[in-house]
């Protein structure tokens, strides 16, 4: 989806549009990278573009599953991997293609939630010391807003990493990934550009 979320005539369309736009934006940060480049951490952190794709995919799937299960309680062992920090590490057997395929599947799942789930349904939460007294869970609406927030945060991280890797920035990457051609105000990124 190029540059901005589409106009929305309803809350559901707005949620879906911003969710798709942020997930696409993160995906575009990996456009044209090599297997070695998705594992680079050119900033002071250990974050990588591949690791961010992996983390966001797990996060989107976990929250989508909560929304799909609402009003029933949801549990997923993948959350253990997230708690251990393994969700940011790209294993040797993982490739850019496999990370993007998983990201695309998670995107489709989240968009299906945005399209069909009852936005007022409550996904219950297990009690935890960080929740306020009386907290019972999240509405699906809150879940979708939280996922948009989470993806946007990590898409921003990925933007910075990508620019450090090869100088590529968001709009030229989007133009290249979407096959938009020269738009006058932006030219598509190419591997030989500075």
From TrEMBL:
<dbReference type="Pfam" id="PF04978">
    <property type="entry name" value="MST"/>
</dbReference>
<dbReference type="InterPro" id="IPR007061">
    <property type="entry name" value="MST-like"/>
</dbReference>
<dbReference type="InterPro" id="IPR034660">
    <property type="entry name" value="DinB/YfiT-like"/>
</dbReference>
<protein>
    <recommendedName>
        <fullName>DinB superfamily protein</fullName>
    </recommendedName>
</protein>
